[in-house]
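The data layer described in this paper is built around a simple, fixed record for each protein. We quote a single record here, exactly as it is kept in our systems:
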Amino acid sequence: MSEDNVEIVRATIDAYNRGDLDATLKDAAPEFELDWTRAVGPQRGVYRLDQIRAFLVDFLEAFEATRVEPDEFIEAGDHVVVPQTGYIRGRNGIEVTARVTLVWTIRDDAIERVCMYQERQEALEAAGLSE
């Protein structure tokens, strides 16, 4: 099951990188939530499925280009921990690199939750793992 979960996460990230929001959200459960409370910046909070498209559109429109590169996929039962690097280029040409770790919770082939952590160890602990 965990291998299937990794493939769901991988496909979602690939769709995001292509800018295909429909494919990005296709595996989201009806009760989906994005926990972005640990974010640094203006978009902080918890977003439900009916709010996530606007969140993504606002984020993507704020920048000239964004891309996410997963460093690895760590399976942990219903969770997939993904340390990743985000590459963002602002409209003024300034480029930023951001490293965060996401914990994806997937049940019955649907993404129920994605939670962002600034620190890898904190994300691993949230998924019941340790270094």
